[in-house]
Design brief:
The complex is a heterodimer of chains A (113) and B (114).
Chain A: E1 4-7, E2 10-13, E3 18-25, E4 31-37, E5 44-50, E6 53-57, E7 64-70, E8 73-79, E9 87-94, E10 103-104, E11 108-112
Parallel strand pairs in A: 2-11
Antiparallel strand pairs in A: 1-3, 3-8, 4-5, 4-9, 5-6, 7-8, 9-10, 9-11
Chain B: E1 4-6, E2 11-14, E3 19-25, E4 32-38, E5 45-51, E6 56-59, E7 62-67, E8 72-77, E9 86-93, E10 103-104, E11 108-113
Parallel strand pairs in B: 2-11
Antiparallel strand pairs in B: 1-3, 3-8, 4-5, 4-9, 6-7, 7-8, 9-10, 9-11
Classes of the chains: A mainly beta (113), B mainly beta (114).
């Protein structure tokens, strides 16, 4: 266990569905991240939250909507996804001021049908 | 923009040998360079971090080097074991914006055969 918990672990959804991914960290970190990992491609940073404020949005389509209600929880709301959005979605947290490593959750394997 | 290259082909070695993985980057040298291990279907796990003013870092059977002139980091696993089989990711922390943003390479898959 890394201290970062993601749910669900697997998700299959249709293109017209709305679903949410949840991430929770118990490490007291001040930054949380969403990454997308597709087959044969590097991890792609999607969103960054520092102290609950979104500091980065890497040109992510609006069908992905993040929410960070507090420094321990992060959500990714999904709506009208495309089959090419199928991937492993990883949440991570870190203590930014200390320039230390990122702690990742186990990921949500998303399949869009 | 910053690009990272790791050997895309899998590395196959015999148990007991030293595995050496390469991470090359373009443009600016990062403030920190990190190595992670990722097993299939799971999130990456941090292994080692090296700073731009450090040449080498060790942890048990692991060793990382950082050459800012060559723009390269090497990751070594000595006395490799089948349990070391995994994908190893190189990540750069540019340190510019202090957001903790990491840029990842695509990873190299290591297979250690008994």
């Amino acid at each position: 266990e890394t201290g970062v918990t993601q749910t669900p672990r697997h998700l299959v959804m249709g293109m017209t569905n709305k679903k949410s991914l949840k991430c929770e960290q118990h490490l007291g970190h001040n930054a949380m991240y969403w990454y997308k990992q597709s087959a044969k491609k590097p991890l792609e940073l999607m969103f960054v939250y520092n102290f609950k404020e979104q500091t980065e949005n890497n040109s992510v389509p609006s069908r992905f909507s993040p929410e960070c209600p507090n420094s321990s929880h992060l959500f990714l709301h999904l709506h009208t996804l495309q089959p090419e959005d199928s991937a492993l979605y990883l949440c991570a947290s870190s203590q930014v001021a200390a320039n230390t490593e990122a702690f990742f959750g186990q990921g949500t394997r998303l399949t869009v049908v | 923009s910053q690009k990272i290259e790791q050997n895309s082909e899998a590395l196959n070695i015999q148990e007991g040998k030293t595995a050496t993985l390469t991470c090359n980057y373009t443009n600016y040298s990062p403030a920190y360079l990190q190595w992670y291990r990722q097993d299939p279907g799971r999130g990456p796990v941090f292994l080692l971090l090296i700073r731009e003013n450090e040449k080498e870092k060790r942890k048990e059977r692991l060793k990382v080097t950082f050459d800012t002139t060559l723009k390269q980091s090497l990751f070594h696993i000595t006395a490799s074991q089948p349990a070391d089989s995994a994908t190893y990711l190189c990540a750069l922390d540019m340190g510019f914006s202090n957001t903790g943003k990491l840029i990842f390479g695509q990873g190299t898959t290591l297979q250690v055969k008994p």
